[in-house]
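Lesson 9: reading folded outputs for more than one chain in a single document. The general rule is that every protein is listed as its sequence immediately followed by its structure tokens, and records are never interleaved. Here is the first one.
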Amino acid sequence: MIKVLLVEPYDYFKGNLSFPAPPLGVWRICGFLRSHGMDCKVFSPSIHTDAYDELEKTLLEYEPSIIGFSITSMTLAYDLSLVHW
């Protein structure tokens, strides 16, 4: 089975860069993938004290076949730091 991990935009400042609504796009994509038989999870880096360690833990435990990152212009630097970490 294909396992997909989608990563939400990373608001490093926990609320100063984000919009007042959650990033529903990644959740919609995840729902679509699930409805087509794929195993999909969403990782929310902004809710963790140490997003890098939690992402590493998630990657090691879940072992996704595909990883997708959602990036916004306001969180670009922090999103790219996760991608390149």
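And here is the second record, again sequence then tokens.
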Amino acid sequence: MIKGKELALACAKAADEVKAEQIRVWDLRGISNLTDYMVVCSGSSMPQLRAILRDVAGKMTEEYGVKPVHSEGKADSRWVVLDFIDVMVHVMHQELR
């Protein structure tokens, strides 16, 4: 099963394939008690935010059999977090970021 850095990079790649902007991957091991890696990316419109969320979650499920255990927010709120336990993916509208 994919985990950690490999999962974080796969999430970043999936976001990049749908033209997410300002994609960053941070290694938080030893810094955060919540997660090992954080992926943060931006979109410039509601349809793009929805596409990023759909493709990141969808590709992780299809290609690796990994689903987010929790998500917080909706595209309309302009900030959504997908929680894969050891990787948290933050998808934000560029104005909010």
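What the second record shows: The longest helix spans residues 46-64.
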